[in-house]
Hints:
Mean pLDDT of chain B: 93
Helix content of chain A: 25-40%
Structural class of chain A: alpha+beta
Low-confidence stretches of chain A: 279-306
Oligomer: heterotrimer
Radius of gyration of chain A: 26 Å
Strand content of chain A: 15-25%
Shape of chain B: elongated
Order of helices and strands of chain B: HHHHHH
Distance between the termini of chain A: 29 Å
Largest sheet of chain A: 7 strands, mixed
Strand content of chain B: under 5%
Number of strands of chain B: 0
Number of helices of chain B: 6
Shape of chain A: elongated
Structural class of chain B: mainly alpha
Helix content of chain B: over 70%
Amino acid sequence: MHKKGFKVAFFSVFFTIITVLSGCEPLLVLDPKGPQAERQASDILMSIGLMAVIVIVVFSMLVFMLVKYRASKQRADYEPPHIEGNVWVEVVMVGIPVLIVAFLSYVSVQSNYIVEAKPKGYEDTKPLVVYASSSNWKWHFSYPEEGIETVNYLYIPTDRALEFRLYSHGPITSFWIPQLGGQKYAMADMVTTLHLAADVPGEFMGRNANFSGKGFAENTFNVTAMSQDDFDDWVKEVNETAKPITEEKFEELLVPGHLGQQTYTGTHLEFSPPPAGHNHNEEESSETTKTESHTDSQTKHESTSH
Amino acid sequence: MKIDNSLPLEYSTEENSLKILGFWIFLGAEIMLFATLFATYFTLENRTGSGPTGAEIFVITPVLLETFLLLTSSFTVGLGIHAMRIGKQKAMISFFSITLLLGLAFLGVEIFEFVTYVHEGAGIQTSAFTAALLTTLGTHGVHVTLGLFWGLFIILQVKKRGFTPQTTNKAFIFSLYWHFLDVVWIFIFSFIYLKGMM
Amino acid sequence: MDFFDRFAVPHPSIAIYASMAAIGLTIIAVIAGITYFKKWGYLWREWLTTVDHKRIGIMYLLSALLMLFRGGVDAIMMRAQLAVPENTLLDAQHYNEIFTTHGIVMILFMAMPFIMFFMNFVVPLQIGARDVAFPRLNALSFWLFFMGAMLFNISFVVGGSPDAGWTSYFPLAGNEFSTSVGTNYYMIAIQIAGIGTLMTGINFITTILKMRAPGMTLMKMPMFTWSALIANVIIVFAFPVLAVLLAMGTLDRQFGTNFFTMDNGGMDMLWANIFWVWGHPEVYILILPAFGIYSEVISTFARRNLYGYKSMVGSMAIISLLSFFVWAHHFFTMGQGALTNSIFSITTMAIAVPTGVKIFNWLLTLRKGKIVFTTPMLYSMLFIPLFTLGGVTGVMLAMSAADYQYHNTMFLVAHFHNVIIPGVVFAMLAGLHYYWPKMFGFLLNERLGKWTAWLLSIGFILSFMPMYISGLDGQARRMYTYSEAAGFSLMNMISFVGAAIMAIGFVLIVYNIYYSTRYESRDISNDPWDARTLEWATHTPVPEYNFAILPDVRTNEAYWDAKKNGHVLFKGEFKKIHMPNNSGIPFIMSCIFFVWGFSFIFSLWIPVIVTTLGIFGCMALRSFEQDHGRYISVKEIEETETNLRGA
């Protein structure tokens, strides 16, 4: 889609307008740093362009009618005619919107499958699995393979697929890092999966986007993307310096309120497994979860199946 | 008030035909109400938490009895309306009374059923499944209960005032309501009990 | 003391104490005023017990304006809080309460009664009927709505407001996370008002299907009546869903069931799904009658028949059908997978097609017309471009992959205000100016009216366009504050200025009503706008029986047909007219409902049982009552008609 020259021109015009309006800093969503966010930004700009055409058509028609057919411009004895409607006009009126909607549907469906799959360009990388669970009003990030847990901050490697498994210890929340890609809900009785990737190192804003009560506004987290080597160093360092997370400690963390950034070794998944339901999987009854050892074996199984 | 004698008494005035149409629309709304309850039930059917499943608590005997009672009552209310159409007040009142007695019996069995469930540890608070089950059945049961009072009022009015455009209109609308509850029960029977026991 | 503690507001502030005082003083002043002017009898006879659709309509209008004030104050407070970063005007709890009540009040207690006002006042007149099918049920509908609205509003000063958002998603709205009675108010007050709305739906479908004037086939109905019919069909199918949902929410909160809880199998997603199965059709219940009003206004002031009548009706029917199959677009991000999202994305975009047809039909109605710029027309002409903006952003939101970025942001907030304000609110104001003379016998001041329309539009653009931008910049909705570093300050300040301008606009409306009541000419005809449909063919003020002789209709613009082609609408002689009697039962029953609701909210079971019996008592009373209505004699009709013609 980007190849067509006029569209690029169109985008850049809108991009400039929006940039100027927002005080010369690119808007987060339109300043993507990963393939998913890029796809979404390009969809957004494309639809803004297309919609602008419709808006211009409607505005011009309206102005034309209002200028031309004002009573003050008409003879005093002018009697407007009775016009029922015209089949051909109606065919055009329906046909053109149908074509536009069909085109947008096509793009939309395509994008749906793209954002729900491993990020483009990173299909052959082994994804980093991170369980991101929310509690009032914190985010807990568990790295099961690295054996690390952090609170309210997220370190991720660049140039590698990221697979976030989201769930909540309380109200429905929504995990959102605008510059890496759109959001997804974290809920109490189902694990949802969000596929992201970061192209470049940097610091990004992440937050809960879904209202979850009093502390919602401050329910944010920092995301730092770094090279795989730096990431490995960080993992090593944490494993050497941080204290292990215990069941008691975790219960303490769950108490509603705000916390700063914290780091632990081990993950809470070992003693407090995520809910059993998954995207599209049949709901298992909670009894089966209790009997099943819900740790590494299952996690590994899932990460290969996705 | 214009009375059109070519129509049955319950349709004979304009007001009456308005009421009958209005009631049909109300039944449309009732269909949505029960549809929502069914949708909820089907969603939560297998979410039994630590409580029992449907297969564990459903017993066929009381359910068959309830079905029999309600289906028969639907038949007798139909006979009642037939009696009304041919102008037999006594027969109509008898059929309506039988209908209400059958409805009362149905309600009795249903209450017995509920008590059993609670004894077996399937109270309304037990799990999402029991909440959806008892709410769906309960909503139907409340409808039957209201129907009993309504039917009783109509019998009293017919006794007092005879067949007038008003009383026959009410009786006819009541019969629509009662048939509707029967239809809902058939759905409950098939898709909650039979499906749950299988 | 423990007993009374529950009625205290859990998180009081000066604003709440001030409101308590204000509410108390207003009630005392109203009661004292009525007593002093000896108006209790008048109030009871002419208003509280009335079953006349016109008066019920006017009561809906008054309630809607009152609630517009309440919701508007909420809105201004929100914008003021966000105008600067890290503002401390409101704290998180108050902000949460305010955006929750703003949403509910504006949708359910402002826009809904406004729509009900139009349906009540206009539909029977437009179809040439003497009243609705079930006048007493209509009164009950109004009073239930009114009591529901009042019950909801006292939450502010008794027990605490709901604070889980107007969508009230569980588990946030469950007992664990919403401990005050606020969410109980939500469940019960909306339930009571919703029962009223459902009965209105049944009533108006019956009225429109059965009580049209002779000759008025379905395809000869005025467009507003069509829109009302379709909206009421949606009500009948959507509101039972809400009733069940609220009942389950109540059970979860007050009886410990596990529909939406986090354990024992409860499913939080179920609430969201059922809520939007009702919630999406609900917005079409609001917008379709608004479209109907625009159709009437545009064709009247373009001095032309509505272009594409059939496609207008067809597009509304398609919209109403589609409205039940798009609910999941409110949570594309719930993780239901690409396939489900794709389906809902396509159905949602499909709605753009019939909506576009309507826009183009209005534009083509202007073609070859003779456009007169009155206030209602000005609102309509501002509606077309502004609503188009809202419509196209709706299409953008429908692209589910992109919606992952719009969802829960100010972009979404901007979108739905962009359809609701120009779409619904402007229609309400256009209709208010348009029908005001029919109700009260004088026009609202045109100059002030046009000023208001421009102020509201400019204010609207300033308040909501910046939200599109701050949404794309990552500002989530429902945040009570943000840091300076976030970079939202400028956009939010512009929004606040816009909101202030809109507030001035609404104050001007009030001033206009006052000014026009005092100074506008009473010397207007029955048809001050040179309009086209039947409601303008009867006298102003409209007599109790609407039409002395039921009109004979040939076209979908019956009155225009009479004016231009000399068709005689009223043939024959006066005959005595059957009218329903007034009744106090709807009012009394609704008062009992109010007490029932209040006791239920606070789990006071003894009063609940007593009032439940009271409600059924009222129904039983109604069942045994014999009320055949009354007749207006030919002599009385002749007198009224002569008087009205003379005046």
